Amino acid sequence: MKKPLAIVAGEPNSISSEIIFKSWILRKNYNHKPFIVIGSFDLLNLQKKKLKYNIKIKAINKNFKSKDLIKNILYVYDIKYTQKKPFQKESTKSNKYIFNCFDAAIKLISNKKILGLINCPINKETLFKNKHQGITEFLSKRTGNLGNEVMLIYNKKLSVSPLTTHIPLVKVSKNMNKIKIINKIKIINRFYRNFFSKRPNIGILGLNPHNFSQIKKNNESKIISSAINELKKLKIKVIGPISPDTSFMLYKDYKLDVIFGMYHDQVLTPFKALFNYDAINITLGLPFIRVSPDHGIAKDITGKKIANPKSLIECIKFFNYIK
After folding, report:
1. Of 308, 244, 317, which Cα lies nearest the Cα of 282?
2. What percentage of the chain exceeds 90 in pLDDT?
3. Cα–Cα distance between 308 and 310 in angstroms, integer?
4. What angle is formed at CA 84 by the lines to CA 80 and CA 87, rounded to 5 degrees?
């Protein structure tokens, strides 16, 4: 068996195990590279029985060898964690377990035992307690790449990326600067060239509604326009600033591959309205590939066997681009 990718199980009291099991059951319906799960074998086994899935799972440790993995078994790199019921109320009890899962994934990558990682959903507020904005920032700091991280929500038809991620709207303008915009666009451009052998068309949004002429002279607009001019000198295919309210209506006319916005919901809200679960979250700027489903823990449907695995399946399929 070829080197597998790893799926970090994420928040234990969520839909994570369900979408993992469904992705495994449906694996013959899509092209994929081999994958293992990093999580608690005992808990996943308990949840498998609760959800009534007839799947063979087997625990492995750091000494596993890819050539010994059998195709019809879902292997679990075992991280110890126990709870009495298959699904319980979400709490901070699982925080150490989740961090241990990520640590194990990073070590496996460092030891060249896995291709990269997919992490299932976690609750950022419960896990990080304001220490990190999200997984993107956590992993960039954990790997010594803080400041180079880029959140790209990827779809073959259109991707989006925000300059700032999980910060209050009032802080967005204070976190805007020309160098940051240029660096993030350069990372996105490099990603498309390396993985898809293309120079992407990137539309850069203005911050203010309609890019009204009377507000074009403000500091934010100067920052964006100046960054665009510098990027054009670097022969990167950018246009803008584009009026945010029409950008998602006209992206086909502009033939855009990526829409780059100034804050999270400026690009994520219309994107999710267009593509729903047909998207994945890719962290660029790390020394390895990290992707995740573009949705949360869905605690309202946890354990109900109605979760949609499409986004996780798209994450698994993305690794087909990695040689």
Report:
1. 317
2. 63
3. 6
4. 90
Q: How far is CA 262 from the centre of its chain?
A: 18
d(CA 264, CA 75): 35
Does this chain's domain 1-147+286-323 share its CATH topology with 150-284? yes
Number of helical H runs and strand E runs in the chain? 10, 12
Comparing 71 with 189, the larger pLDDT belongs to 189
For the chain, the structural domain boundaries read: 1-147+286-323, 150-284
Beta bridge partners of 37: 7, 76
pLDDT tens digits, one per residue of 230-268: 999 999 999 999 999 889 998 999 999 999 999 999 999
Query: Between vectors from CA 263 to CA 261 and to CA 265, what angle results, nearest 5°?
Result: 95
Distance in angstroms (rounded) separating the CA atoms of residues 191 and 234: 16
Question: Under a CB-based contact definition with an 8 Å cutoff, are residues 157 and 209 in contact?
Answer: no
CATH topology of domain 150-284: Isopropylmalate Dehydrogenase (3.40.718)
Q: Are 241 and 208 in contact (CB under 8 A)?
A: no
Q: Tell me the C-alpha distance between 136 and 32, whole Å.
A: 24
Whether residue 4 has a cis bond before it, omega within 30° of 0: no
Amino acid at 74: L
pTM over 0.70, yes/no: yes
Query: Whole-angstrom Cα distance, residue 305 to residue 51?
Result: 7
Q: CATH classification of 1-147+286-323 is 3.40.50.300, yes or no? A: no
As a whole number of Å, the end-to-end CA separation of the chain is 14
CA dist 166 to 131, 133, 182, 214, 280, Å? 12, 5, 20, 29, 17
pLDDT tens digits along 160-199: 999 998 888 899 988 999 999 999 999 999 999 998 999 9
CA distances for 311 relative to 163, 224, 272, angstroms? 23, 32, 12
Strand partners, 162: 261
